[in-house]
Amino acid sequence: MVALAMPQPVIAAVNGPCIGAGLGLAVSCDVRFASQTAYFSTIFSRRGLIAEFALAWSLPRLIGRGAASDLLLSGRRVSATEALQIGLVSEILSADALLQHAIDYAHDIAENVSPRSARVIKAQLRAAEGETLPEALATADEALQGSLASADFREGMAALRERRPPAFPSP
Questions:
Q1: Of 6, 33, 26, 9, whose CA–CA distance to 111 is shortest?
Q2: Averaged over 134-144, what is the pLDDT?
Q3: 94 has pLDDT over 90
Q4: What total number of domains does the chain contain?
Q5: Phi, psi (degrees; rounded to nearest 5) at 76
Q6: How far apart are CA 91 and CA 165, in angstroms?
Q7: Does residue 118 share a domain with residue 72?
Q8: Which position has the higher pLDDT, 66 or 126?
Q9: In terms of residue numbers, what domain contains 90?
Q10: Which residues contact residue 120 at a Cβ distance below 8 angstroms, ignoring those fewer than 6 apart?
């Protein structure tokens, strides 16, 4: 769950078995990519254990309660294709292309996304899980006021007007 608490986006590249604690770590990442040979399993129930690593909390939020119940109760193996279908991963790539794709994705975020915006959006995502819609709207309104007053917003708008990549201030 450490990845959820990090202010920076965390990206997983899964190339092979992603089982138990490994699955807990992958689920806590913001984005997950998988190779065609990756597979996933909670396995806990098949070993006499319970849903460890807060997967009973995080997995339903990621893939829905029904799919999470299926995976946690059965402990069955899920292919990369099924993982994509249920929303566990964002994309499937060849094993040779997987790591470079994840690195390129991270570089795109680092070069084009406001570090401040990324931090605030991650905090919004965490907070929204325990908020009502009116609370989430209030949180967003408050965060928007901070964004509109930020140097990152000024730089983002200048980059748009000048048709150039943004050069956001360091965090």
A1: 9
A2: 89
A3: yes
A4: 2
A5: -75, 165
A6: 26
A7: no
A8: 66
A9: 2-108
A10: 143, 146, 147
